[in-house]
Amino acid sequence: MVVSAALLIRERGAHATAISDVLEHSGAPRGSAYHYFPGGRTQLLCEAVDYAGEHVAAVIAGAAGCRELLDTLIDKYRRQLLETDFRAGCPVVAVSVEAGEQSDRDRMAPVVERAAAVFDRWSGLIAQRLIADGIAADRAREFAVLATSALEGAIVLARVRRDLAPLDVVRRQLHRLLVAELSEGVSQ
Hints:
- The protein has helices at 2-12, 19-26, 30-36, 40-61, 66-83, 91-97, 102-132, 137-161, 165-187.
- By secondary structure, the chain is mainly alpha-helical.
- Keywords: DNA-binding, Transcription, Transcription regulation.
C-alpha cells in the first residue's frame, strides 16, 4: 500500500490520492488500511514520503562518484517521465506543495515535516559524496542544495512542458559546476 501510495502521489498529487485509490491500486483488502494505518491518510502519506525518500537515498548512496550520482539520478528521472508519459513527478514535492492550504496545514504538518527531512537527507548524502570526491565541506553542502533544487525543478518543468530538455540543461550545468568545484579542490 505504501508503494502504491507513493506511485499514485507522484502522478496525481496527494489531494487526488484517496485511500480507496491506494487500495484499488495495491489490491489490498479494505480492512488492511485501517489495520496497518491506524493514523489514517496522514500516516499513509508519511510512510509514502519515507518510502520515496529511502528509494532515492539508496540511489544517491550507491553512486561511486559525484558525476555518476548526477547521471544516475537524471537518467532515472528521464526514464520515469518517459514511461509515465510525463505524469510521474516526485511524491515528496507533491505533498510539500499541496500542504499550503490553511485548512490542510495542521493535518499535513507531519507529512511536510517528513518531506523536509527527506530533502535534508538527500542534500546531506549528496554533500557527503562530494566531500568524499574532494570538494570542501561548505562548498559541497551548497552544491548539494543547488543540485537537489535544480533536479526537482527540472522534473516539474519537464512534466509541464512534456519535454526532457530541462533535465538535459540541469545535467550540463551541474556537470560544469562540478568540474569547476573538483578542479578548485585539486588546485588547493
